[in-house]
Task: structure prediction
Amino acid sequence: MTAASAPDASTNPDLFQARLAQIAGEVEGEIRRALSSAPLPLEITRPDRLLEAMRHGTLNGGKRLRPYLVVACADMLDPDFARQNRAGLIRAATALELVHCYSLVHDDLPSMDDDDLRRGQPTVHKAFDEATAILAGDALLTMAFDLLADPATSADAQVRLDLITGLARAAGAGGMVGGQMLDLAAEGRHSPDQAQLQLSEQQIRQLQSMKTGALLRFACEAGAIYVRSAPDVRSKMALFGQIIGQAFQIADDLIDVESAPATAGKATGKDAAKGKATLVSLKGIAEARAELDRLTAKAEDCLAELGRDGHELRTVARFIATRAF
Ligand code: GRG
Result:
């Protein structure tokens, strides 16, 4: 039994699953409201087909891990403030989920990963068409920033600005989108002979920290921003997010190697089929699992340094390291 899967009285998986489900429900309510057919002030009209595609790409059963992290981090740092400002906190958390969903819609496109299945259902371009999927992703991305800019999210303009800037940096050219670009380049798409690039371990880590790590890191930092934490606490929360982001990616690579599509809710075996280098392909399954254990321990140290009751986030760190879907 690895450290990450060993029972530990300081974690509570049932409570975590209940909280994850509860926050997912609140976020889905917020997504439904945001995707209402009625135009907002300054909008003209909202085409039905676009809204249906946006709903298909968002209300399709994701784990809602990123919004959960925003809420759980805010709750840990300032439970009273987080409780009193719950509706705004859920709006902030929903903005991150909209960006995540957009990235999945675009990642599944024929020109990117060309996937037919996402969260166990047809991808948006399969259920609709490619142009509609591109537009649905574009509109989800802009809607995220609309949510964050609205005073209903936070009465504090500095908080709104920090959330907007942080999300833009995590999701944009130097974050998630940049990571996707490096990933496409690694597939050999831009080299004359289309040959795969042999990435070094350091290059793989950098790519992953951008493509998937940046948004998870920011989810934790956003919780600290929302409750107006001091800069050192904000940095520590971002570090926690960075560590669990690394663990998330290794677990994702292991799922690709070890899980059946029915369990994963998406196609698996894709990395090997494409000859794609991951930390798992580079170091092997046993070393990847050992790294997950080390990352879980580091995440726990980080929480201990914050000096709060971090049992819920300790459970999250363990869930991320041991998840099978
Ligand atoms: C196309 C702009 C653009 C970016 C794509 C995030 C990303 C960049 C692509 C996703 C490809 C992928 C499957 C990466 C592995 C890690 C990952 C983000 C998995 C999906 O996240 P989960 O497990 O999904 O949180 P759910 O469905 O639960 O929300």
In short: Strands lie at 117-118, 121-122. The CA atoms of residues 17 and 159 lie 29 Å apart. Confidence is low (pLDDT under 50) at residues 1-7.
